[in-house]
Amino acid sequence: MAPLRRALRAEARATVRFETPPGRQLQIDFGELGVVIGGERMRVYLFVATLGYSRRAYVQAFGHERQSAWFEGIEGAFAHFGGVTQEVLLDNARALVDHHDAATREVRFNERLGAFARYWGFAPRASAPYRAQTKGKDERGVGYVKRNAIAGHEFAGWAALEAHLAWWLREIADVREHGTTGEPPIMRFRRDEAGALKPLGGRPPFRQVRDLIRRVQSDCSIEVDANAYSVPWRLIGETVRVVVSSGRVSIQHGGHEVAAHPESAGRRQRLIERAHFEGVSPPSPATPPAGPPLETPAPADDLLRPLREYEGLVGGGWRWSTTTPSSAC
């Protein structure tokens, strides 16, 4: 049985090394350790992101590991590298992954992570549960940061820690000869990977953006914060994506923007664009009964009064109303 046991142990540890092309993948993870800051030992959570091709890294320190820290770290990495990768390989953190079946590899990502990924235009990928090898580049990167950047250091304050990490990335991590590629990550990045990243496009941080899903109602509108925004009438009943950012409401369907409105600061307002109703047929008149047409008697002359007399009775001129009366007058 001994040879069989050795074979099983080897199979469990075996990993097929693969190289990702430039701009394809960013691997992310968190590592935690105790750091002396301001004379007091504190628990610090280090977000580490590593580009799969060039091995260039980004590090950011946080006081927690909640979802907001993951999102801020990813956005910080995109800003540091100057672009977005096609996919982001992440751990099975509860803040990001709702369910991951180790046997079937079925993954259900957190709904807000899905909105975050759509906003930045990358595909999230979850590493296999209990298989750190599938995210080995970043797993080793976390250990490298702990040993090389943090170990043995004390910091006067949080700002000093952040300044040290920025210096370490620039002066140490970027320019060292990488053990696998044999090149400094910054050289490999500038030569092959920088141009393969998708541009940021001047997008604001995701926390300033709301990404919503709405269904177009029969009155050709969707509702956001108790306000109605018109949509082309042909989309009645369809599900649309609504992005609220920088005072603007963008309504998208099929990957294209179909309507845009300024965001209303009030409540129960209706923002309508007349072009969204072009082509809507007016209601057809009732079908007259069969038989000879009925003659409408001409009104007597004494019943024909000027409208100003009626205006005087009701105390003012006629006003146009956009509301539909509940019954005919």
Residue share in β-strands: 25-35%
Mean pLDDT: 83
Give the proportion of residues in helices. Answer: 25-40%
CATH topology of the largest domain: Nucleotidyltransferase, domain 5
Question: What value does the Rg take, in angstroms?
Answer: 31 Å
Query: Would you report the number of β strands?
Result: 15
Poorly predicted spans: 318-329
Order of helical and strand elements: HEEEHEEEHEHEHHEEEEEEEH
CATH superfamily heading of the largest domain: Ribonuclease H-like superfamily/Ribonuclease H
Class derived from helix and strand content: alpha/beta
Biggest sheet descriptor: 6 strands, mixed
Please give the alpha-carbon distance between the first and last residues. Answer: 94 Å
CATH class term of the largest domain: Alpha Beta
At CATH's second level, what is the architecture of the largest domain? 2-Layer Sandwich
Can you tell me about this structure?
The C terminus is likely disordered. The radius of gyration is 31 Å and the shape is elongated. It contains seven helices and 15 strands. A hairpin with a 2-residue loop joins strand 10 and strand 11. The strands form four sheets. Strands 1, 2, 3, 4, 7 and 8 form a six-stranded mixed beta sheet that branches. It has a four-stranded antiparallel beta sheet with strand order 9-12-13-14, with helices on one face. The protein folds into two domains: 183 residues, Nucleotidyltransferase, domain 5 (2-Layer Sandwich), CATH 3.30.420; 72 residues, no CATH class.
